[in-house]
Design brief:
mainly alpha, 66% helix
C-alpha cells in the first residue's frame, strides 16, 4: 500500500495524544500524578493538541474534504465512521475533566474514566480500520489492534514521563514507560515474524478461478499507464530497504528510548530531562518509521490482477 504521510502522521500523533490523555484521566484521580492546575493545563494541552493535529491531518487524505461529515453517518458498518464518532465524543468528557481540574481545582473521576475509555475505543477503531480488511492479509492480522494500543501507551507514557521531570518525577511512570516499550517492541517483532512466515491466502489462480487449469500468469497488463489502483495499492518496498527500516525502527523507536527512560533512576535534574526528551522524541520518530512500514509492506489482493503471484 502507498504510505500516505498524512495518515502516518495522524496515527502517530493521535496515538500519542490518546495514550497521554488516557493516562492523565486514569492516574490523576488515583493521586498518582500532580493535581496542580498548571500541570493539568500543560498536559491536557499537549494531549488534545496532538489528537487534534492528527485528526486534522487525516482530512488531507480525503478526496472530497467538504463531504467529510458524511463519514460520521456510517457508524453501523464502517470502522472509519466509528473512529470519527469516538474521536469527537472523546472531547466531551475530556473537556469536562479539564475544565473542572484547571478552573475549579476539582478532579471528576467519572469524566476522567469516560474520556480514558473513549480514548482507548478510538485507538481500537483506528486499528480496526486496517484489521478488518481481508483483502490485505498483512493488515488482517490479530496483532494489529494490540500493537496499536501498546504503541499508544508507549508514546503517551514517554511524553508523560518527560512532563513529570519538570513537575516532580514519579518513578512508577518511568517504570511504566520502560515496560510499555518492551511490550510494544515484543508485539512489533512478533507481528513482523508473523507476516514474514505467513502462507499466501490468495494467488493469481484463486483470484481468477483458473487455478485448476494450471499455473496462472499475467498475459498483458490491464492498463497501459499507471492508475489509482497501482499508485495506492500496488506500492512495493524492496526487502532490503524494509529490513533496514525495521532495524531503524527497533533501534530508534524502542532500544534507545528504553535505555534513556532508565537514566532518571541514575541521574536527576538536567540530565534526566534531556534523556527523557530524547526518549520521547526518538520513540515518536521510531513509531513514525514503524507506521510507514505498516503501510508500505501491505499487499492488496487486487495486485494479483496486475502481475503479483500471491498475497
Amino acid at each position: 500500500m502507498y504510505p500516505s504521510l498524512s495518515v502516518i502522521f495522524f496515527t502517530t500523533a493521535s496515538g500519542a495524544g490518546y495514550g497521554l490523555l488516557a493516562l492523565l484521566c486514569l492516574l490523576v484521580p488515583l493521586g498518582s500524578l500532580p493535581r496542580t492546575p498548571l500541570f493539568g493545563f500543560i498536559a491536557l494541552a499537549i494531549a488534545l493538541g496532538a489528537i487534534t493535529a492528527g485528526l486534522l491531518s487525516s482530512l488531507l487524505h480525503l478526496g472530497q474534504k467538504k463531504r467529510a461529515w458524511r463519514a460520521f453517518s456510517q457508524w453501523r458498518t464502517s470502522w472509519l465512521s466509528r473512529e470519527g464518532v469516538a474521536a469527537v465524543a472523546t472531547y466531551v468528557p475530556a473537556a469536562l475533566f479539564g475544565i473542572a481540574w484547571i478552573f475549579f481545582g476539582r478532579i471528576e473521576p467519572i469524566a476522567g474514566l469516560a474520556a480514558a475509555l473513549l480514548a482507548v475505543v478510538t485507538v481500537v477503531c483506528t486499528a480496526m480500520i486496517y484489521r478488518s480488511l481481508k483483502p490485505i492479509p498483512r493488515w488482517h492480522n490479530p496483532l494489529v489492534v494490540p500493537t496499536y494500543l501498546a504503541l499508544a501507551l508507549m508514546s503517551g507514557s514517554l511524553w508523560l514521563a518527560l512532563l513529570l521531570a519538570f513537575f516532580g518525577p514519579r518513578p512508577e511512570v518511568n517504570v511504566l514507560a520502560a515496560a510499555s516499550i518492551v511490550v510494544g517492541a515484543g508485539l512489533k517483532i512478533t507481528y513482523w515474524r508473523s507476516i514474514d512466515t505467513e502462507q499466501p491466502t490468495s494467488t493469481a489462480g484463486t483470484a481468477t478461478g483458473l487455478g485448476s487449469l494450471g499455473a496462472v500468469r499475467l498475459f498483458e497488463a490491464p492498463h497501459t499507464s499507471e492508475n489509482y489502483l497501482l499508485k495506492e495499492m500496488g506500492f512495493v518496498v524492496a526487502r532490503k530497504h524494509a529490513t533496514k527500516l525495521r532495524r531503524i525502527a527497533l533501534i530508534v523507536g524502542f532500544a534507545l528510548p528504553f535505555l534513556l527512560s532508565l537514566v532518571p533512576f541514575l541521574f536527576s535534574s538536567g540530565v534526566a530531562i534531556l534523556a527523557l526528551l530524547l526518549a520521547a522524541s526518538l520513540g515518536t520518530a521510531g513509531i513514525f518509521v514503524e507506521r510507514w512500514l505498516f503501510f508500505a509492506e501491505a499487499r492488496h489482493a487486487v495486485t494479483l490482477y496486475y502481475g503479483a503471484s500471491a498475497v
